[in-house]
Design goal:
The protein has 139 residues and is an all-alpha fold. 67% of the residues lie in helices and 0% in strands. Helix 3 crosses helix 5 and helix 4 packs antiparallel against helix 5. The structure holds heme C. Heme C binds next to helix 3, helix 4 and helix 5.
Length: 139
Amino acid sequence: MKTLVKTLSVLVASAALAGAFSVQAEDKAAANTAPVGQVCKQGEPCASAAAAAAGGGGAKSGEQVFNTACTSCHSTGAAGAPKVGDAAAWSARLAERGKDGLHHSAIAGFKGMPAKGLCFACSDDELKGAVDYMLDKSK
Ligand code: HEC
């Protein structure tokens, strides 16, 4: 009988301890999740820090986009790409589709020209800038 009482009191004590631990754990969990719950909205300082960390910190210039994404085909004429500097090739395309049409080709693709020139991280404006850069260098 004495052992039974002892066993019971140990059980009760450990149950109380377990309760105390679980309360502590919940407090900790709440503290750990608080910062994660904060949403970083565009335009807030935390959002621009994230954008900067993602690389670039703002839009790339047409020249930068060209040098990283377009030069492989448009400097060599690979697959029939109009070469930068080839005024005849570019003016014919410009006459046919206009600047807007060429912008659209760069974004959506055109025959052998892959959509976005394979620069999937490029924004539409960055792609348009790269087209304008090539047109500028091909007059
Ligand atoms: C994998 C090769 C390749 C890459 C990379 C590439 N292009 Fe092209 N591009 C082509 C080819 C090929 C054509 C010619 C398509 C045709 O008329 O058959 C072309 C044509 C174009 C045209 C003319 C489309 C028209 O309507 O006449 C534009 C504008 C253009 N590319 C922009 C870009 C830009 C901007 C980039 C970089 C962001 C780029 N390209 C990257 C292959 C490429």
